[in-house]
Amino acid sequence: xxxxxxxxxxxxxxxxxxxxxxxxxxxxxxxxxxxxxxxxxxxxxxxxxxxxxxxxxxxxxxxxxxxxxxxxxxxxxxxxxxxxxxxxxxxxxxxxxxxxxxxxxxxxxxxxxxxxxxxxxxxxxxxxxxxxxxxxxxxxxxxxxxxxxxxxxxxxxxxxxxxxxxxxxxxxxxxxxxxxxxxxxxxxxxxxxxxxxxxxxxxxxxxxxxxxxxxxxxxxxxxxxxxxxxxxxxxxxxxxxxxxxxx
Length: 247
Fold this sequence. Notes:
Helix content: 25-40%
Number of strands: 11
Shape: elongated
């Protein structure tokens, strides 16, 4: 959490030379939020649960689990050598819940999600983008460590207009497999508004760990016994091919 605030301060300082242009890009909000603000908020269920939603306005069902999402979207083939080949097809809505659950496994990131005004995962072309809209004034400073509180104070004092402004922060990449681990690829980027920043350049300051997110995503699949062998985007959906133990 504190690294996210420090990262925003670094970005804000870096754009000082061309304030108007970079301010507009850094504070731009995604269409899914501006077109329906307040309707995309993700209500965190217990970490074992992942609510699914088929639209931005549908009521969240907090009894739906990651396992049920995978089971509802898989296509299994006949048993082969004790393993069942299958495909899991995830829509944007399904993937949004899985991504949010993976992020929430880390306590500070989970606290950040809880204060987010909107969380969404989108699939465009061969890339996935997952991010959240948050207002700095709504991040509970009392829950932050001392360094995080100092970063928040410095940021809002240097740029007062940010103190009560919605900001979008996300991560974007092309899904692929590295071994049996689901990855967002070497070309993954951090999104702040409409700005794209190399993960290696700013991920640490922002507190966004691509490796940790990928590890949590892979762990969710492993918990269900799924060994992924291929991942691709087909017709705007994420298709994961692999095997599970035969029952």
